[in-house]
Amino acid sequence: MKSPLLTLCTLLLSGLMLQAQPSNDSLNLVKLIHFPTSDWNVPVGNGKCNDIWGYADSSGAEYALVGNEKGTLVAHLSPFQQAIPALWVPGATSVWRDLKTWSHYAYVVHDATPNNPDGLLIIDMDSLAQSRYRFVKPTYTNPVTGIVDTFQKAHNIFVDENGILYAFGSNIGTSGGAVMIDVATDPWNPSIVGVYEGDYFHDGYARNDTLWGAALWGGVIVVDVTYKSSPLTIATFATPGSFAHNCWLSDDGNTLYTTDEIADGFIAGFDVSNLSNVNEYFRVRPQVGTGVIPHNAHVDGQHLVTSYYTFGVHILDVEYPELPVLAAYYDSSPVSGGGFFGAWGAYPYLPSNRLLVTDREEGLFVLEADYPDVSRLKLTVGTLDLSTGSTAWGALPGHEMLYWKSGGDSLYVDSLSHQVLFYGLNATNDTLMWNYAPGQNLAVHYTLSSGMFPHDTLIGQIGLSLEDLTLPSFDVWTGKESWALHGLEGHQDLRIQLIDANGQVLRQFEWQAGDDMVVPFPLSPGAYWIRYESRQGESASVSVIRP
């Protein structure tokens, strides 16, 4: 569902959404069902939940496939917003369980090696009433060594559009890379058709015979798997936190999204349209300094759905991946801060658009989204002066925060003037200081946010590039009641402006060559700027203090 969202008047160019967050636990997501493990009526004991997947049969009935430390639950999601257990499959005890579907079959793996590992669990979703499922352990013969391995476990799985199941972090081979299993030819009796052993893959995504592997410290590794028996690495790149936990490709195949499963880790977006020149679009992390950990991200059309430990599910509108906007969130956990508690996974692909979330301690949540329409503003500065001691300044509408990408410094925008000055880094008051000197060639990036802690609304990241220009400077002498300007005798027909801290022009003068120029003090003490502009477009400004 979508609802219109009233946007504020923008300063320039295209629009950017501002949105307040009404509570500390939800925005544009409504809880339909909460199904804690105590209501499952199966012997899970104190087993915690792990991953989640969904399924809809030919009649339209929808199901949640819920991983648990003690086994796998299939729950029917009724149209009356009830979750009804349809099948429970006990399994080897494991913190990690992952689930995917192909045709009318569900496939489940677990990690760690208990005394009696399960291998690959297959559930016939068309025969739930008959409880039709089986565990299989396909074998693989290494073509070089002749060693025969039996599939016992894996950390994660993914099934591509051709019915190839990729098992990551398995016991097959020496590195725990990717085992490729054909589940299309005979879904009930799958067979291993290839193995990638170059690096350990924690998770991954595959499309069009290209495998994107999340290799933790190894970053993202891109593999050509056209020939399953001889996969070939074609590209690698690092993620912001150097701990690539999972990745997911956009529908158009041009953007890859990643999560770094570390405290204060980033979600990031990369332009992968040219693998020889991969560029980062953005990086996002909420509640910096609290240790919140991102876990799994999935692309659902123009939305990026990400589960965070202790922070719930967050959904970014990534229609324009260089300017992501927070569209919705729901915090399922009473726990906050760091640690591996709370939301493990989220599944956004049911035909009804109901969103499934597993919380480790709290169980299954079924949510309904009411996504807002998002508009964006590409901010450009109103004036840009690049000489020594000069300023770069502009105006922003509304109550906003500025976060510098590198340092996290913030600036609260005055609601009355709706303007903000930024002319240097690391300011602690109403002005974000930015000292520019000739000879520099800078690109300054900042992020707009709602400033509503603890759920800061990411509005967008803007880049402002500066190039060194050779402009004449001038001196200002402060007197008792005015400023005197010196150093511009060689120029004619200069326009002089006195600008206050809100960027408003208070006074404007014309200065002819050879004349003395005196600028009277304004009424109020404080910081001001004196700026000149020549007919040739040259300009410079100096910050001054009115005693």
Description:
With 547 residues, the protein is an all-beta fold. Helix content is 0%, strand content 47%. It has no helices and 48 strands. Strands 2-29-28-27-26 form a five-stranded antiparallel β-sheet, with no helix packed on it. A hairpin with a 3-residue loop joins strand 42 and strand 43. It is elongated, with a radius of gyration of 29 Å. The protein starts with a strand and ends with a strand.
CATH class of the largest domain: Mainly Beta
The count of helical stretches stands at 0
CATH topology of the largest domain: Methylamine Dehydrogenase, Chain H
The helix-and-strand class reads mainly beta
Residue fraction in strands: over 45%
Total beta-strand segments: 48
Query: Into which percent range does the helicity of residues fall?
Result: under 10%
Unreliable stretches: 1-24, 375-471
What is the topology, as strand order, of the major beta sheet? Answer: 2-29-28-27-26
How would you sum up the global shape? elongated
The CATH superfamily label of the largest domain reads YVTN repeat-like/Quinoprotein amine dehydrogenase
Major sheet characteristics: 5 strands, antiparallel
Mean pLDDT: 78
